[in-house]
Specification:
The complex is a heterodimer of chains A (about 190) and B (about 450). Chain A has about 190 residues and is α+β, with helices and mostly antiparallel strands. Chain A is about 20% helix and about 25% strand. In chain A, the strands form 3 sheets. Chain A has a 4-stranded antiparallel beta sheet, with no helix packed on it. In chain A, strands 1-10-9 form a 3-stranded antiparallel beta sheet, with no helix packed on it. Chain A has a 3-stranded antiparallel beta sheet with strand order 2-3-4, with no helix packed on it. In chain A, a hairpin with a 2-residue loop joins strand 2 and strand 3. The longest helix of chain A is centred in the first third of the chain and has 26 residues. Chain B has about 450 residues and is mostly helical. Chain B contains 16 helices and 4 strands. In chain B, the strands form 2 sheets. Chain B has a two-stranded antiparallel ribbon. Chain B has a two-stranded antiparallel ribbon with strand order 3-4. In chain B, helix 3 crosses helix 11. The two termini of chain B are about 15 Å apart. The chains are: A alpha+beta (about 190), B mainly alpha (about 450).
Chain lengths: ~190, ~450
């Protein structure tokens, strides 16, 4: 602030040079009030960009997994994002369980941690490569799970990252079996 | 900046570095240090309030546009979604909708202030003309925005107002189709209105910058209406900060309190219930009225029995403001010293309110119920039609007849030699005091 002294003869709070004056207090109080008001104005505007009530209401998806044939996967959408439902064959299941202790697991997890008890063959993962979010290709790559062509990430049939730049396994969303083979994601 | 010396001294190295390359801090500091007449009253505070209004409208508008769908099939529902589902959307929309009204309250007071104190006279004509441009853009922006919710009033307002263009002889019809983007108000119209409604506030912002530039070049007027001579600057001026930052800040808080009363306690009081009915091209509302701030001009439009004539009168009502500096023949700026003009001014204010009242009534309705009257030309004398015509006549006469004639014939009161004189008890003797006169600056 440029202090233009128009009325230099006016006392500025009456304190000696260098000490805090009433005017300093008023300046700080006014500045604090202005800053508080600014936050209170900005908050509702910024908050309006958060997911709206109707968006949040779309947060669950139901699907009957009996439609997924063995050895195949079905892609469904949940909250606007693709989800892989993969019904692993016996051979694939055997391999991913054997790989539970493999040394090249970057993000070690057992297959059991990634599935629901009683539904071991059914894997539910977000169809989004944990590197930069591309959709990996089904059944290709060095481990027969998924291969992400964007930057060469190899996932096994449990969706675990085995090779390439992706840091984490394909994400298993929150889901549960509600009735028989029907799942509700979210 | 009114020939005022810069007092900013960059202290830190960063400030020095920046000041020699882009003196933006200097600009801000000089703005705050600007010598301002010390006798400005609260009528002068609305300039600051208006700048806040504009920023508020732009800020809320940007966030509304993030959720709004400019499509005839989705617009109405998207506005309702903002009201119900978007976090704080109800608040943002009500602030935006009522903010438009507050903007016009402030701009009307601001304009009447300028009219009363002669702020449009030399050397300030450019400030006034730029202000008129801002006012015109505000009307356009408000109209375009009102169409967006795609309610019944939105749709039929757009229908009626675009139809005005059709009144232009010969080329009216093709221009109308070009304006609407089709044979009727439809998706193309809504899309372009949304685009323009987003654009124009930024144009207004640009013209506001010019408005302030012109203001700081010519210097502020003041309620006494005299130019403050250089040698009295120390006596009659105070730096803008802290004196007017605090005064404007206080006024702003009072203004925001009134604004908040509308937003939180009667958010739809200034609107029209029909706009909560989705637009229906097959049904016209019984009574199409614009928002309150357009009513005086709507009344003038309806006062003329000819379609094109009405359009000319309505635009003329705004257009005549542009030439106001050359219609007023008086050498005295402030109406404080023009007792005759002051009376005409008060009548003008009441007349403006009357025009607004008329704009909201049905033209054929009786002004005084049951009072017998006679048929005159095309309607009963005791009808809003004729009341509107009388008020319209005064509106134009005020600018085209009263201002030129009174300026030539009146005897103004004695004008103080300085702005301090009227408020000081003793004689404020100063060396080389020159009597004030409306001197022309180059």
């Amino acid at each position: 602030m440029a202090e233009t002294v128009v009325n230099a003869d006016q006392p500025q709070g009456g304190a000696p040079e260098g000490e805090a004056t009433r005017r300093d207090f008023i300046h700080i109080a006014a500045g604090a009030a202005a800053a508080g008001a600014g936050v209170m104005v900005a908050w509702p505007l910024i908050n309006s960009m958060n997911p709206a009530a109707d968006t949040l209401a779309l947060s669950t998806t139901e699907f009957d997994t009996s439609k997924v044939q063995e050895g195949m996967q079905v892609v469904i959408t949940w909250q606007g994002k693709p989800v892989f439902l993969r019904n692993r064959s016996a051979a694939e299941l055997q391999k991913v369980v054997a790989d539970n202790t493999a040394s090249d697991l970057k993000d070690p997890q057992t297959d059991a941690e990634r599935t629901k008890p009683g539904h071991e063959a059914m894997l539910v993962v977000l169809a989004s490569c944990t590197h930069l979010g591309c959709i990996p290709t089904f059944g290709s790559g060095d481990y027969g799970g998924w291969f992400c062509p964007c930057h060469g990430s190899h996932y096994d049939a449990s969706g675990r990252i085995r090779k390439g730049p992706a840091p984490l396994n394909l994400v298993v969303p929150e889901y549960e079996f509600t009735a028989g083979s029907t799942i509700r994601i979210g | 900046m009114s020939g005022h010396e810069s007092t900013y001294i960059p202290k830190t190295g960063v400030e020095k570095w920046l000041d020699t390359r882009l003196p933006i801090v200097r600009f801000g500091a000089d703005y705050l240090a600007l010598p301002t007449p010390k006798n400005l009253n609260y009528w002068y505070t609305f300039g600051a309030i208006l700048s806040i209004c504009l920023v508020t409208q732009i800020a809320t508008g940007i966030f509304l546009a993030m959720h709004y769908q400019p499509n005839t099939a989705m617009a109405f529902a998207s506005v309702e979604r903002i009201m119900r589902d978007v976090n704080g959307g109800w608040l943002i929309r009500y602030v935006h909708a009522n903010g438009a009204s507050m903007f016009f309250v402030a701009v009307y007071i601001h304009m009447l202030r300028g009219l009363y104190y002669g702020s449009y006279k030399a050397p300030r004509e450019m400030i006034w003309i730029l202000g008129c441009i801002i006012f015109f853009l505000m009307i356009a922006t408000a109209f375009l925005g009102y169409v967006l919710p795609w309610g019944q009033m939105s749709y039929w307002g757009a229908e009626v107002i675009t139809n005005l263009v059709g009144a232009i002889p010969m080329i009216g019809e093709p221009i109308l189709i070009w304006l609407r983007g089709g044979p009727a108000i439809d998706n193309a119209t809504l899309n372009r209105f949304f685009s323009l409604h987003y654009l124009l506030p930024f144009v207004i912002f640009g013209v506001v910058v010019l408005h302030l530039w012109a203001l700081h070049t010519a210097g502020q007027n003041n309620p006494v209406g005299i130019l403050i001579p250089k040698d009295r600057e120390k006596k009659d001026m105070v730096p803008f900060h802290p004196y007017y930052t605090v005064k404007d800040g206080f006024a702003l808080i009072v203004f925001l309190m009134m604004f908040a009363v509308f937003v939180f306690f009667m958010p739809n009081a200034l609107g029209h219930a029909d706009n909560y009915i989705p637009a229906n091209p097959l049904v016209t509302p019984a009574h199409i009225v614009p928002e309150w701030y357009m009513l005086p001009f709507y009344a003038i439009l309806r006062a003329v029995p000819d379609k094109f004539g009405g359009v000319v009168a309505m635009f003329g009502a705004i257009g005549i403001l542009f030439v106001l500096p050359w219609l007023d023949t008086s050498k005295v700026r402030s109406m404080r010293y023009r007792p005759t003009m002051k009376v005409f001014f008060m009548i003008f204010v009441v007349n403006g309110l009357l025009l607004g009242w008329c704009g909201a009534q049905l033209p054929d309705a009786q002004v005084v119920p049951g009072m017998p009257s006679f048929f005159l030309v095309d309607g009963q004398l005791n009808s809003y039609l004729w009341l509107t015509r009388l008020a319209t006549l005064y509106y134009f006469a005020f600018f085209a007849v009263i201002l030129p004639l009174v300026g030539l014939r009146e005897t103004p009161l004695k004008i103080p030699a300085s702005i301090s004189e009227p408020v000081l008890s003793g004689p404020d003797v100063m060396s080389g005091a020159v009597p004030a006169q409306a001197e022309k600056k180059g």
